[in-house]
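User: Fold this; tokens only.

Assistant: Input:
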Amino acid sequence: MTNLKRIYLLPESEIADLYARPIFNQNEQQLYFELNQVELDLLGQLGTVKTKVYFILQLAYFKAKNQFFTFTFDDVQADAQYVLAKFFKKTTLVFQGSITRKRINQQKQIILNLFEYQDWSVEQSIQIEAHICELLRYYPKGHDTFRQLLVYLDTQKIVIPTYRNLKDMFTKAFVNEGDSFDRIFESSVSRLFKNNLVDISVLHGDGTTTAAKKGGDNIGRSGHKHMSGDKVVSISDRNCNVIAPFVTAPGNRNESPMFPDAFKSLKRIAKAVGFSLSGCVMSLDGVYDCKQNRKMIFNANMTPNINENKRNRKANKRGRKRFFSASIFKERFRTIERVFAWEDKFKRLIVRFEHISAHHYSMKTIAYTMINLRHFCRP
């Protein structure tokens, strides 16, 4: 796992309860240490008493939790004494040393074959990741999906992997599911270009803020708009088509530092779909007026059309006057601003109710995709 932050699935108490070795009371000892004839035959194939006791202990723990555990005889002294008294009629035997790793692996394989279980392997991770992606479509909350996965592993008779492996698989699954909405959006842009429904001679960028009703992640208080929420920066063409995926930030963030990420998304879409940004005009309002943004647009062989931010200057700035077309800038009110007005037609997006920002942004991506596909819905 590189460049991916592992997600939070379970609290520490539930992790310990899931992976902790079972501690039997007297009734549970009678239940789990009862061996049938097949198990007794397998036990007879083993050599020393120490090896047989270890096998009985591992078998009982596997019956209880369908997992294998690493332990010493000192760790399970009560259970070991019970096994010695029940099967070998001994109570004072003290074991020296430990069971070899090779012998432990052999015993694990015997137990797996006995219950027709599969041990965890790297090859199974691909299958499990695909199943997690399927579960996430029905159970968007991670802990619900986790519990459904445990049921699936029990049904398929697969030993539960380590918690770290599970977190890695869930992280990859969440990323893949998030990317799926981006791929849907990208396909809508590609279809627009194939049908000559776009006009990228001028691109308009702007941001919009959504109020949050119940709080959640990626939320900040906007003093200018007197509300708490999040904001996005998006880019559209002259035909009110959303060309690039939006970038997000809390509501108290300035929009200017968000533009580089939005511009990277625009270039990524251009490369994926196969159109050129060279010679286009990028029209932005004064909040995006900074040296970094202008240089980024120039380096892409585009022309910035940004309403200059005077920054409380009383006199005109020295040097060559920067290009700015008021007529092009005025187009924003019937392009990008119209897109934001159409976005407000989706009632679920007017106010953010989702605590998890990924859910809200996924619905926003679907809304922008539907805006792009409006050309194909006309009678």
